[in-house]
Design goal:
The protein has three domains: 5-244, P-loop containing nucleotide triphosphate hydrolases (Rossmann fold, 3-Layer(aba) Sandwich), CATH 3.40.50; 249-340 and 428-510, P-loop containing nucleotide triphosphate hydrolases (Rossmann fold); 355-425, no CATH class. The chain is 32% helix and 28% strand. The protein contains 17 helices and 24 strands. The radius of gyration is 24 Å and the shape is globular.
Length: 510
């Protein structure tokens, strides 16, 4: 045992049906450092750290915490050793307040008049406020989780760890659902936690975040440890190549567009939210075949509502939507799919897949009523299986039991690959991509961006909504910039600079 390590894992092996998630991994993490795990979706990063947090037990190997060999049989056992974890998909109760979520499982109990037990939420809230002030994680303990933003929910998860006096903090893909501004804030918080003596373990596939904040980085590929690097001595290109096991190219030559007839027309679209506030205001645009039309904007400015309305998830308050000249404004979701709309939603787990279905069922869920999936009223499982096996191979969807894999057991990135594969397989005239590369590793990002360009080159109309400005600038033929629910400017992408788009996004221009 090496005394300089606060965490040491020796020869860790973990298997699930059909897959070796971790294969003889040995790693040491020093006290007070930010140690990153980098790897493709499904490389075994989250599984390894889930064992450190007591969610799984290793099939082989040993774990040492502060020099002592330890059996972590539960997350409670990990918490007793001052280990905390923020999961990629938050573990919060939406109807509980922030304070109730933070103290859940270790509620401070008192007795009124020495007889009547009650939970002392007032004292707990006071401590939460002290912690939030000390670490720059300001929250209102009295707000319910369902009332606050995603970034605030993440602060709550961090405060849950700090409330339990965690010294070893594990962050699993913490920036997957954050805006660029929120990411900057979170990385700053991690730096402050390190400066106060905490040990940070960061699971990610984002190279720029590792370069910005991490001290060392372990690279995993298909369950094996490839290399441990000093981050300051490694280039992003070297890390990317090690992660995917091949030479990666960060740019792709985009051929000049060949525009065809208009596929989508949106005219005077106004959308109201549940509080009857206008989140989309009199928006009009059109998309031609062979064109990628990207809507750029800061999160929360109405771009997702536009996509949801075109796809049929939201009813417009005013305006018209036409697909190849046909007014589909009042039509339901299935008729829009039949008319030729594919949709990759922002929230993959809420709108993209059914987590407890097997992968084959999720891949065939939009076409289950057609051959080869059904014969009139009888479902044909062999049709689902063959279709799924074809997409799994073509899109490199990592799934331990192939078509029979329960979708919930797959990594978030592979769930996203499955949705993209299904929607492209529909061969729709209009492809709507909302945050298509969110939560994906760099190899998968490269592949999906190529697929978007391929669909455009086949003559499809593509509506792209992304918070990644470089993604918008690299892929789009036409850019519409949205601010406060209004499209301020629509122009060919080559006529706009990144700075100009940024100024429109912030409302400085237009």
């Amino acid at each position: 045992m090496n005394d300089e390590y606060i965490v040491e894992m020796k020869h860790i092996t973990k298997q699930f049906p059909g897959v070796i998630a971790n294969d003889d991994i040995s790693i040491g993490i020093k006290k007070g450092e930010i140690f990153a795990f980098l790897g493709e979706n499904g490389a075994g990063k989250s599984t390894l750290m889930s064992m450190l947090f007591g969610m799984y037990e290793p099939d082989g190997g040993e774990i040492f915490i502060r020099g002592r060999q330890t059996v972590l049989s539960s997350s409670k056992a990990a918490a007793a050793l001052n280990i905390g974890m923020v999961h990629q998909h938050f573990k919060l109760v939406p109807t509980y307040t922030i304070a109730e979520n933070i103290i859940l499982g270790m509620e401070p109990r008192r007795k009124a008049l020495g007889l009547f037990p009650y939970i002392d939420i007032k004292t707990a809230s006071k401590r939460i406020l002290e912690l939030s002030g000390a670490y720059g994680l300001e929250v209102d303990p009295n707000l319910r989780i369902e009332q606050v933003s995603v970034s605030t929910q993440q602060r709550v998860e961090i405060l849950k760890m700090l409330y339990r006096d965690a010294e070893i903090l594990i962050f699993d893909e913490p920036t997957a659902v954050l805006t660029p501004q929120e990411i900057e804030f979170l990385l700053k918080i991690m730096g402050e936690l390190r400066n106060k003596g905490k040990t940070i373990i960061l699971i990610t596939h984002k190279l720029e975040e590792i370069k910005q904040i991490a001290d060392r980085c372990a690279i995993l590929r298909r369950g094996k440890l490839v290399k441990v690097l000093q981050v300051e001595d490694a280039s992003t290109q070297e890390m990317a190549n090690l992660m995917v096991g091949r030479e990666l190219t960060f740019t792709r030559e985009k051929t000049p567009p060949r525009f065809r007839d208009t596929i989508l027309e949106v005219e005077g679209l106004t959308v109201r939210n549940e509080n009857q506030f206008e989140v989309v205001k009199d928006v009009s645009f059109s998309i031609r075949g062979g064109e990628i039309f990207a809507i750029a904007g800061v999160s929360g400015n109405g771009q997702v509502e536009i996509a949801d309305t075109v796809a049929g998830l939201v009813k417009p308050y005013r305006g018209h939507i036409r697909l190849k000249g046909r007014d589909i404004t009042g039509e339901n979701i299935r008729s829009r799919i039949e008319a030729g709309i594919s949709y990759i939603p922002e929230d993959r787990q809420k709108y993209g897949i059914v987590l407890d279905f097997i992968l084959a069922d999720n891949l065939g869920i939009k076409t289950y009523y057609r051959p080869p999936f059904s014969d009139r009223t009888v479902l044909r499982q062999e049709g689902f299986r063959r279709f799924a096996c074809d997409l799994i191979e073509r899109y490199d969807i990592r799934s331990g039991q192939g078509a029979k894999t329960i979708t919930r057991s797959m990594s978030g990135g592979n769930q996203q690959k499955a949705i993209v594969a299904r929607e492209i397989s529909l061969d729709s005239e209009l492809m709507i991509f909302v945050q298509p590369t969110r939560g994906l590793d760099i190899g998968a990002i490269e592949n999906i961006r190529k697929q978007i360009l391929d669909e455009r080159d086949k003559g499809k109309a593509v509506l792209l909504i992304s918070l990644e400005l470089d993604e918008v600038m690299n892929l789009a033929d036409t850019i519409g910039v949205i601010f406060n629910g209004k499209l301020l400017n629509i122009a060919p992408s080559e006529s706009l600079s990144t700075n100009e788009v940024g100024e429109y996004m912030m409302g400085v221009k237009g």
